[in-house]
Amino acid sequence: MSRPMVRPGGRSARVQASVHTAVRELASEVGRDALTVPMVAQRAGVTPSTIYRRWGDLQELLSDVAVERLRPETAPEDIGDLSADLTAWAEQFLDEMASPSGRAYIRDALLGDPDGSNAGQCSAYAAGQIDVILARATARGERTPDTETVVDHVVAPLMYRILFRPAGLDAAHARRLVATVL
Q1: What is the pLDDT of residues 62-113, one digit of tens each?
Q2: Among candidates 122, 114, 179, which has minimal Cα distance to 156?
Q3: Domains of the chain and any CATH numbers
């Protein structure tokens, strides 16, 4: 059964933060495949039952951590025109998602997501970044495609290639996709 991963406050937020930190530290120290719920619980200072009650199982916990790690930390760079802004964003998106850690986070986000809510959240992160870029361009008087068009013609092909056909995938490919959508 999937549990909704809401942004809690107070003690619940502290538990989530300590468990997420424990997962990231332990994955770095012993490797993701060696992680166990008791190991994470001990490091986080909580009981295993707390983790099972909140996340259900290790895969759902890894999925929750992955979605949090895939959240953009900053707004997209404002270079000054739509083409440059969207190209810089697409290249950075590709670089981050196609990296070994990015691919692992994508895999974890999707594996522990039986209802598709994590995939939707990750998609919303990308769409939100695109919204910022398009709003800036519109404010400058530039003509822009809509967000869904950019998602369909830039993000979707990049994700497909990252997941299923990574050979030969490079920044030039991202630039071609952006040029085509514009």
Answers
A1: 999 988 888 998 999 999 999 999 999 999 999 999 999 899 889 999 888 7
A2: 122
A3: 10-56 (1.10.10.60), 72-181 (1.10.357.10)
